[in-house]
Amino acid sequence: MICRYHSSEPFRFCLSVVTPNSTRIGSFFHMDLCPTLTNFLYLRGKYVQQPPLRPAVILLDLNLPGTDGREVLEEVKRDPKLKSIPIVVISTSSNPIDIETSYQNGANSYIVKEVNFTAFKIAMQIFEDYWFRITTLPNEPF
User: Fold this and answer.
1) Which in 11, 53, 79, 120 has the greatest CB count within 10 A?
2) Is 63 in a helix, a strand, or coil?
3) Residue 62 has pLDDT above 50, yes or no
4) For residue 19, what are the domain limits?
């Protein structure tokens, strides 16, 4: 599952469900930021009937409108059940402080968002290739 900011819907996340060892996208879930993300991951509230899904990786926008992605990163990495999920930060910020802080708070990678759509698309293809074709991720139960 990839958790990424869906730019056409401000204040929302788009979760793309990817089965283990597969690059095929299964379904999409749109949700508000925390606590809905953790509710989804823990199958609480309206997600209680969902089958348990462990994210392969979370793609997190650092500068979210209304909420700081840094707080989301810290919350997920503090949680014993969630902290092993790789988090890739994506941001328009190339500020060394943002980059260093993200890594100190548990980010597994940091991508500076390309402004040019073609360059952004290429960067996201490389992201997908690395995380879903090259890297071996654990098939941990949730």
Assistant:
1) 53
2) strand
3) yes
4) 2-134
